Here is the input.
Amino acid sequence: MMIGETKLAALGLLIVHLYFFSIRASTENHPCISSCGDISTIWYPFQLKDDPSNCGYPDPGFVLVCENNHTILYGKYYGTQINYHNNTVRIVIPGVRKDHCFSYPLYSLRNREISYPYGPPSEWNSVVFMNCTRPISASNYIQITPCHNNSRNGTYAYALVRDSLKVRDNIQYSCTIGLTVISQIWKGVAEPRNRSMSNLQENLLMGLELSYLTFINDISDYSEPNYSLFAKLLYSFLYGLVENLKNIFDIQG
Here is the structure.
């Protein structure tokens, strides 16, 4: 048992060594590695707006803006994580915060608004915010308490959460629709009747994972200028392995 643990530890050290070697190699050959806010490594196909134009792929979807220590995508959404191993980027709609009252998202985000080079997740929830003139007892309606309640007296604020694209078919006639966003599938609180405003805040703050894998597959000449493709591929592969090792050994990054 001890020998097995020793071999595992040695393998882990070797992978970590190769991981940092690949970072060094790619950095020496390619100066276009940036960071901003929660994202410590921004590189091809992404780039910051102020980076040289040849750093990323020439598509507005890959040009990020660093503002107030936030990585911003499409001028609206916060980018919180880029996974080069899985070709995904996680975004959060600004405005929501964890509080005793509910602060609304600043922007809508509907499935049809997600366009190439990104694709929506295979599963998602639709969340429709609304004001109603009477109380709603349906289980998919989450009553919320807005932080800035500008509604008329006698109105009730709700969020309707549905797993179906036909969410609007379930809206009560006494309700007026506001923003619509999509979020990741609810985990841990499967039963609608058990969902709360606090659960909704946590779900929205977790963000939504978008894939750019289709874009990667569409590029036949996937080559990054001025630095080693091998180093990039090695880094991407080892990045995923190191993250898995961190989870296994509960190592803080």
Observations:
- The mean pLDDT is 77.
- The longest helix spans residues 2-29.
- The radius of gyration is 22 Å.
